[in-house]
Specification:
Belongs to the zinc-containing alcohol dehydrogenase family. The chain is an alpha/beta fold and 362 residues long. Helices cover 26% and strands 27% of the residues. Helix 6 links the parallel strand 12 and strand 13. The longest helix is centred in the C-terminal third of the chain and has 13 residues. Bound molecules: adenosine-5-diphosphoribose and zinc ion (2 copies). Adenosine-5-diphosphoribose binds next to helix 4, helix 5, strand 12 and helix 8.
Length: 362
């Protein structure tokens, strides 16, 4: 059997997205068909639309999603029809060197659904964004991309853990190892940085310093647990962070912008034994220039964070519990809920200073 559903498709480089009818097959072995309830609009969706990731048009966009499993294919035992799930980018194999050494985030054999969804009008195969494609009433994924969480969470909030918010919380807690009493500085307080702030606060950081060039982002950061806010348009970020940490620098600095100057600030704003966590994604032509003596002379660690070093089956249910207990304000990230045909408008609003996330609710 197949399913005809409405979905948001990017048909060509830079062209506005369109609402299309797509054909979704029933799940094959190891796959799950998911009825999508909510999906956040992420910068990566826009990058796909602009052809910045690859040329495999048409793309089925959307990857920050939660929904309910409708049916599963042969051999699927971890999730069952009726389960409320958050989707992650790729199922891991559990058998490669990375998986066996306890680093499944770097699995060599990650996979998505093998069967293809197609455009009803032309029969063309769709490339689902990040192997998900969730700006659709239903989508097909590998069963290992589904993590069951508590049904009482709102789908709009839960879906955010599938990408940006997990990346930010995980950058602070999993990659940065933020713990009780630490001082943390977060440079860039968009969706990802704001999540790093919420994560640092959850982990018991004593000081959480938010740095941004936009005062509206700093206001939201304070609501999510920032103890100090620095507008780096007006003040030197490194000096301000040093001053707020007794002259030492922060134990953990999270960079969530992705530019050479903010990478540089992060490098110099850490305590000598501190950790820099790079989560902002640079473009291929960007370079970071540092005196080698500074690299040699400073201890600590320089780390990049991929998907918040998350383990979905460990982290998604835990963060949903914290949300349901009122300890993690996921709702604060949802600036607006929109309909499926408003994704293009959400792309336009993406760079408004007052949008953390637009979330499609189905
Ligand atoms: N200094 C400080 N903050 C800055 C600077 C700067 N020079 N330039 C931009 N910013 C702030 C913006 O004001 C904004 O609040 O960085 C924030 C970026 O936020 P978003 O555009 O919402 O991006 P976000 O989704 O949070 O992602 C941030 O992480 O995962 C990566 O690809 C993602 O590189 C991107 C980064
Ligand atoms: Zn994303
Ligand atoms: Zn593996």
């Amino acid at each position: 059997m197949t399913h005809q559903v409405r979905a948001v498709v990017a048909r060509g480089k830079g062209a506005p997205v369109s609402l299309e009818t797509i054909i979704v097959p029933d799940p094959g072995p190891g796959e799950a068909l998911v009825k999508i309830e909510a999906c956040g609009v992420c910068h990566t969706d826009l990058h796909y639309r602009e052809g910045g990731i690859n040329d495999d048009f048409p793309f089925l966009l959307g990857h920050e999603a939660a929904g309910v499993v409708e049916s599963v294919g042969e051999g699927v035992t971890d999730v069952a029809p009726g389960d409320f799930v958050i989707l992650n980018w790729r199922a891991v194999c559990g058998q490669c060197r990375a998986c066996l050494r306890g680093r499944p985030q770097y699995c060599f054999n990650t996979h998505n659904a093998k069967q293809k969804m197609t455009l009803a009008s032309t029969g063309e195969e769709l490339s689902p964004a990040l192997g998900i494609g969730a700006f659709a009433e239903k989508t097909l994924v590998a069963a290992g991309q589904c993590t069951k969480v508590d049904r009482s969470a709102s789908a709009a909030a839960a879906g955010l853990l599938g990408c940006g918010v997990m990346a930010g919380i995980g950058a602070a807690i999993n990659t940065g190892g933020v713990g009780r009493g630490d001082s943390v500085a977060v440079i860039g307080c968009g969706g990802v940085g704001a999540a790093a702030i919420a994560g640092s606060s959850l982990a018991g950081a004593a000081k959480v310093i938010a740095v941004d060039i936009d005062d509206r982002k700093l206001e939201t950061a304070k609501k999510l647990g920032a103890t100090h806010a620095v507008n780096s348009k007006a003040t030197d970020a490194v000096e301000a962070i040093r001053e707020l940490t007794g002259g030492f620098g922060a134990d953990v600095v999270v960079e969530a912008v992705g530019r050479p100057e903010t990478y540089q600030q992060a490098f110099y704003a850490r305590d000598l034994a501190g950790t820099v966590v790079l989560v902002g994604v640079p473009t291929p032509e960007m370079k970071l220039e540092l005196p080698l003596l500074d690299v040699f002379g400073r201890g600590g660690a320089l780390k990049s964070s991929w998907y918040g070093d998350c383990l979905p089956s460990r982290d998604f249910p835990m963060l949903i519990d914290l949300y349901l207990q009122g300890r993690l304000d996921l709702d604060a990230f949802v600036t607006e809920t929109i309909a499926l045909d408003e994704v293009e408008k959400a792309f336009e609003r993406m760079h408004d200073g007052d949008v953390l996330r637009s979330v499609v609710v189905l």
